[in-house]
Amino acid sequence: MEPKSPEVVAAIDLGSNSFHMIVANLDNGQLQVVDRLREMVRLAAGLDSGRRLTEEAQERALSCLQRFGQRLSNLPTGAVRAVGTNTLRSARNAREFLFKAEEALGYSIDIISGVEEARLIYLGVAQSLASDSKRRLVMDIGGGSTEFIIGTGTMPLRKESLHMGCVSMSGTHFADGKITAKRFRQAMIAAEQQLEPIQQAFRTQGWDEAVGASGTLRAVDKVLLAAGWSKEGITVDGLEKLVDALLKAEHVEGLELPELSPERAPVFPGGVAIIYASFKALGITRMQVSDGALREGLLYDLIGRLYHEDTRARSVDMLAARYHVDDEHAARIIETLRYCLEQVSPPKKVAKETTMQWLEWAAKLHEIGMEIAHSQYQKHGAYIVEHADLPGFSQQDQRLLAALVRCHRRKFPVKTFKKLLQPWNRAAIPLAVMLRLAVLLHRSRNPEPLPNFRFRLDKQSAEIAFPPGWLDDQPLTQADLEQEVDFLTAADIDLVVSSDQQDG
């Protein structure tokens, strides 16, 4: 019996400037937004010179997450998706902060790559616009990064994430609030340097319409409309008038722009510099602004997972095809893993369906490192999995999958799992043991099915019992299992291999 889909879902975006939460009713795959919350946390401004989040910044963030958590306290774990972006990608103490943040929120928080952020942004924007065949350029300015995506319909064709945002740009060039022509020109040059590597490719690929997402672009759009500098969307002419107004104000405290909130004013000059530089570098003449953004994309991605259209599964299949894995061999291993899992309980705090999902993905990818070299191919495969752009996966997801691939054969480095966040720092170890044994039993690549066997597994021990006489007829498998006993013993895990006295 499949678990019932939740009636209410929520998405949380822990941005570098603001934290956003969106709550929606879910009815047969359709969303109806019922609540939106936003707090200006300015996480990026809380990074010290050593790229560590200050205690003050952490307190602001944790207080916000506690309030968000109170709103979501009755929702099941699978109904909430929370992600951190640029600042949490780069903060040196992000891991320590995440433990406290997850406790405050009451739900797990994924750190996503810039490219994954771009994919989710595009998904959120695409769902908020009319479905058509137009090619779109989507731009989203965050506190610490800016994403550019070209796509058609709901499909992103090219995704880029650049290391510039309204908080970081304003902090570098307008930290004391002063706005001068020289400073603004320097901010423009800094933005254009970031844009230079993608400029030619984006211009060549082209688009039919440009769409902006994020608070900065919405704020600029509102200011231009209210001031009468643009009748529809953001235009080059409107931006030039806005830049003139910034320079005349000379300081953020002197900004008297309609529709500009006092809390956004300190990061507004940096955001305007990024937009103006992007228009110039990419040849944008007009940009409409969308209500959809990262959190809406998170919701639609979550729906996909709930209705078995998980983007991560497609990413695994594409990576497996790219590295020419043996699909039939992987299928045999997956079947054995299912057989083993039927006989044991999943790790604590992990559902059986989730356990099988990770085992299946690891089985499909465990041999991809062979495309680089057969020697220690498990290490090559783990590196690819951890560092590839895999749509749908968070950084923690990729580390987990990489750990399973890394530890599926030879020495069993338990320390690999200590780097994972809870519950996987412990829960992944029995999964890896199960994967190792399934791979070992199919090492000969013999298509003949395995006999029925008994399997038991707990934290520090495993037992596998075969029908009488079967091991005697499989001397190579028996030798491999004896070697596996030694590998696991070195990791303080006891493996017992025996012949079942009962009929197989």
Provide structural commentary:
- The protein has 504 residues and is of the alpha/beta class.
- It folds into three domains: 8-113 and 296-302, Nucleotidyltransferase, domain 5 (2-Layer Sandwich); 130-289, Nucleotidyltransferase, domain 5 (2-Layer Sandwich); 310-450, Hypothetical protein af1432, CATH 1.10.3210.
- The chain has helices at residues 55-72, 86-90, 94-105, 114-128, 166-173, 181-205, 215-227, 236-249, 268-282, 294-306, 311-322, 327-341, 352-365, 377-387, 395-406, 415-418, 424-441, 475-489, and strands at residues 8-14, 18-27, 30-40, 80-84, 110-111, 135-141, 146-152, 155-162, 209-213, 234-235, 286-289, 454-457, 461-466, 494-499.
- Strand 7 (146-152) and strand 8 (155-162) form a beta hairpin.
- Helix 5 packs across helix 9 (268-282), helix 13 (352-365) crosses helix 15 (395-406) and helix 17 packs antiparallel against helix 18.
- The longest helix has 25 residues, at 181-205.
- The radius of gyration is 26 Å and the shape is elongated.
- 44% of the residues are buried.
Q: Largest sheet, if any?
A: 6 strands, mixed
Outline the low-pLDDT stretches: none
Q: Number of helical runs?
A: 18
CATH superfamily of the largest domain: Exopolyphosphatase. Domain 2
CATH architecture of the largest domain: 2-Layer Sandwich
